[in-house]
Amino acid sequence: MMTTTTEESAALQPYFDFDVPRNLTVTVGQTGFLHCRVERLGDKDVAWIRKRDIHILTTGASTYTSDQRFQVIHPEGSVNWTLQIKYPQVRDTGVYECQINTEPKMSLSYQLNVIEMQARILGPTDIFVKSDSEITMTCVIQQGPHELGTIFWYKGSKLIEPMAQENELLSSENRRITVETDWTEVLTSRLKIKRVVQSDTGNYTCVPTMAKSASVYAHVITGEHPAAMQHNAAVSGVSQRLAVLQATACIICLVEVALIRHLLGKLRLIGRWWVARLVVDRVR
Fold first, then answer.
1. CA distance 185 to 141
2. 115, 117, 119: which is closest to 189 by C-alpha?
């Protein structure tokens, strides 16, 4: 009768492929894949565990969570057990474990990082432009670990569709409203409006497919010199700063009055104590 030595038993155990990447960074909304490769699995099962709440996400090819964003991808006959996370959110950031139900359990940890990109519109948040002139709003996003899709522009809650608003046969030079998007080191989108009119006044928002949006407010001024507009904007900024300074000064004054009242109260108590001492001394 043949017996299996400890060394032979260990040699028959499943084992992980440690050469796969185990630190993954994705942007919000972009599908993430955690790849777990298990050799010589035999009759054992592979499970994916979310470490922060010890929640079993998958076992074998079955999913054990009501969150349908999670599922395992395992082609038949493959050694790959890939956890797929659709539409990841920042809250999904954390440690995930690929486990094999050996005795004792074998596990391999993976770090998932979900980051939220922020769009930025260059320049001030309030734009002043003279009617019948041209305005350009530029929205930029630093590229994340993967491509960030594209950017849409809205005026208020309405999507800006240059081709739908004007004759499609017009060349881009003759269209009043155009949107240009470039994919380089940063994702850049430019909204250009020619011959602006009063109705162009409003809130403009650039909405990326995989990042937080950004907004500016455009003011179309009729019959006013641009220098005066800049002056008004500067005066508005100065007025706001003065208001903050005045409020701060008022708070300081209130604090000083409270301190003075407190000190006067202390002095009154000390005075009463000295008077009482004098009366006692005279009685003696």
1. 9
2. 119
pTM for the whole structure: 0.61
Interval 143-186: pLDDT, tens? 665 566 789 999 999 999 876 554 444 455 568 999 999 888 78
Give the CATH superfamily of 118-228: Immunoglobulins (2.60.40.10)
**How many Å apart are CA 131 and CA 199, to the nearest integer?**
10
Q: Which residue has the tokens 């179309």?
A: 220
Residue 232 phi, psi dihedral angles, 5° rounding: -60, -40
What is the bridge-based pairing of β-strands 23-27 and 46-50?
unpaired
Residues sharing a CB contact under 8 Å with residue 112, sequence separation 6 or more, in sequence order? 24, 26, 32, 34, 85, 88, 92, 93, 94, 95, 96
Q: Is residue 214 helix, strand or coil?
A: strand
Amino acid, res. 168: E
CATH 3.30.70.20 assigned to 13-115: no
